[in-house]
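Good day; I would like, with your permission, to put a structural problem before you. A protein sequence and the structure tokens that stand for its backbone fold form the material at issue. Thank you for your consideration; the sequence and its tokens are set out here:
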Amino acid sequence: MNNLVKKSGIILEALPNYQFKVQTDDGKESRCYMCGKMRMNKISVLPGDKVDVEIPSNFEKIGRIMYRK
């Protein structure tokens, strides 16, 4: 079972298929995808937006965007 770590970050770049390059507050970059509720409600995320991200503690390269601030 993966332990999820919640971090905040900034969108650096928009990638295809609802994926984004995000830089977290600790300076690490990861590729993140939008959660299903954000896609279903058509919430837009653009480069420069601040977001909350869930990242597995054992694998910090792929995460999930949970909230746009």
Observations:
- DSSP finds one helix and five strands in the chain.
